[in-house]
Amino acid sequence: MKFSDILIIGIILGVGYTYFFSNTEAPSVNENLITQFDKRDVIKRSEWSEGKVIDGIQIYTASKDYTLANSIWMLGKDEAAVTVLTEGKQPEFEATFIVSQCNQLAMVVTDKEASTVKNDVMSIFKSAFDSDKDKDGVLRASGEISGRHFDVSVRKLGSVSTFSCGIKTA
Fold first, then answer.
1. Which of 140, 167, 166, 163 is CA-nearest to residue 83?
2. Could you tell me if 80 and 166 are in contact, meaning their C-beta atoms sit under 8 angstroms apart?
3. pLDDT tens figures, 110-150
4. CA dihedral 56, 142, 122, 158 (to 10 degrees)
5. 66-69 long-range Cβ contacts below 8 angstroms, 24+ apart
6. Contact residues for 78 (Cβ-Cβ < 8 A; gap 6+)
7. What's the rounded Cα separation, in Å, for the pair 139 and 155?
8. Is the CA virtual torsion 94, 100, 101, 102 positive or negative?
9. Distance of alpha carbon 131 from the chain centroid
10. From residue 74, how far is each of 81, 140, 166, 168 by CA, in Å?
């Protein structure tokens, strides 16, 4: 065999080995969601912090400070969530902001920008405010958004109101 033949066989074997035995794993659901958050300009990739690994799933968190509120985002095992903390000083503006944060969460996870997603989020919020407080003093409601379970909870902790939205990712 000529040197060139050996070189060609070596290249073919190297490419074949790389193709069949590559160690590249597919990105996890949470890694895909981080890409979606970044693509939709909600939360940049660099703003996410790694948390613990639960049942083999990397947990991520991010927080954002705004003029009217603060939001804490979480990508967990089979669920994504956002909690918005407000002081209730400007309820009409805060309410709009809170619903927009939950809309963004639902649109990222469902990968849809449809008005039906926004309508579904608003409907679940309305159900929460129309409900009676549970034994812990929390208003709660849940429903489906694009076939995914979505829940809302509202509570008062001292002078701070907390609004949480969660949606199943799996």
1. 163
2. yes
3. 998 888 899 999 999 999 989 898 998 899 999 999 999 99
4. -80
5. 66/97, 68/93, 68/94, 68/97, 69/94, 69/97, 69/98
6. 57, 168, 169, 170
7. 7
8. positive
9. 26
10. 5, 19, 9, 12
Burial class (CB in 10 A: 0-12, 13-18, 19+), 50: exposed
Asked whether the beta carbons of 68 and 90 are under 8 A apart, the reply is yes
Residue with tokens 């890694």: 31
Tens digits of residue pLDDT in 43-101? 999 999 999 998 889 999 999 998 878 999 999 999 999 999 988 788 778 888 999 99
Cβ atoms of residues 36 and 60 within 8 Å: no
Q: What is the pLDDT of residue 112?
A: 87
Residues in the chain: 170
End-to-end alpha carbon distance in the chain: 55
Residue 13: both structure tokens together? 């074997």
